[in-house]
Amino acid sequence: MTSTIEQAGGSPAPSADPPDRPPGAPPGREPRSVRWRRALRAQRTLLLLAVPGIAYFLVFHYAALFGNVIAFKDFVPFQGLWESPWVGLDNFQRMFEDAAFWQAAWNTLSIAVLQLVFFFPLPLALALLLHSLARGGVRKIIQSVVYLPHFLSWVIVVALFQQLLGPTGMFGGNVAFVTDVLTNPDAFKPLMVVQIIWKDCGWGTIIFLAALSQVNQDLYESAALDGAGPRRRFWHVTLPAIRPIVILLLIMRLGDILTVGFEQILLQRDAVGPEAGEVLDTFVYYQGVLGADWGYSAAAGLFKGVVGALLVYSANKIAHRLGEQGVYK
Questions:
Q1: Low-confidence ranges of the chain (pLDDT < 50)
Q2: Is 86 helix (H, G, I), strand (E, B) or coil?
Q3: pTM beyond 0.85
Q4: Which segments cross the bilayer (predicted)?
């Protein structure tokens, strides 16, 4: 038919291959370069919106990693990064022999474990309550109330606790057992956990509520028809559906376990003293920024980063053995 049309003077049938197909390319499939150009053109608006965020991470997270070289130097700002003398592992040896460093590490680990045990499950529990009990306008009001403290700075949060629990506060001057809460070293770590629960528990429910909204409602109806009560539906339907999100957040929290809140603790450290209130972040701040011992503080910060990376790697491997995807495959 095509040859008859061509002989009659008609136009030839259009080719199935695009005009920019290079010679020798397999038929029926575009080259990878063509597909990339087409995808870039289609997503150029989203890519432009992502440029500021990508630039932020490249400059302040990835490029900043090269600054860890000062952990192996006796860094002097006036001499510059490359002119400062190398000291090898001397900063790390000094750090491991410093009792103040190990005290800060112990305080950091104690607060982190308390936050992991008492704070991490609460957003999930609150999300389950909001998802199962509250509906419509009531749910929106509760969510707005529990989200609000997240947007307050730690300066305001600490000031509120001082007005409530301080010696001249609402409860501090009237209730005997709370007179020394803010200055009691033994109460410092539980107080840090209570503050972060009040501030960020509601905000932490967002991811769990999003995961719960994706659970197929037909599964609940089928389980109810089979005679499963609320507990069995939670155990066999809800929990397996949100388990990947819970494991993912747990792994991310383990990677950040040695970061327990710099601003929160810095504002209250002096009230209880460094023995109870010093953590690794404030240790780095006082040694490096205030003490100008840059190499030593960089060694402590690098130690914290390496421990966090090892925890993420180990927890991700355990998640793979349990059949979950984790942070990466």
A1: 1-17
A2: strand
A3: no
A4: 45-72, 111-133, 145-165, 192-213, 234-252, 294-313
Q: What's 279's DSSP letter?
A: -
pLDDT at residue 5 in the model: 45
* DSSP symbols for 53-74: HHHHHIIIIIGGGGGGGGGGB-
What pLDDT does 142 receive? 85
Q: Are 251 and 326 a contacting pair, CB within 8 Å? A: yes
Task: Encode pLDDT of 215-245 as tens digits.
Answer: 887 887 788 887 877 788 888 888 888 888 8
Distance from C-alpha of 242 to C-alpha of 121, rounded to nearest angstrom: 13
48-73 pLDDT tens trace: 998 999 999 999 888 888 888 888 98
Quick one: tokens of 282? Answer: 């404030």
264 conformational bin, left if phi > 0, alpha if psi -120 to 50, beta if neither: alpha
Report the sign of the C-alpha dihedral through residues 322, 325, 328, 329, in that order.
positive
User: CA-CA distance, 208 to 186, in Å (whole number)?
Assistant: 33
Tokens found for residue 117: 């045990």
Instruction: Check residue 166 and report its DSSP letter.
Output: S
Using alpha carbons, list the distances in angstroms from residue 272 to 17, 38, 100, 180, 240: 75, 61, 15, 10, 43
CB contact at 8 A, 73 and 84? yes
Please, which residues have CB within 8 angstroms of residue 295's CB and are 6 or more apart in sequence? 70, 71, 72, 73, 74, 75, 84, 87, 91
Distance CA 89, CA 71 (A): 8
- What are the residues facing 73 on neighbouring strands? 86
Radius of gyration of the chain (CA): 29
Query: What are residue 86's DSSP bridge partners?
Result: 73
Q: What distance lies between CA 155 and its chain's CA centroid? A: 22
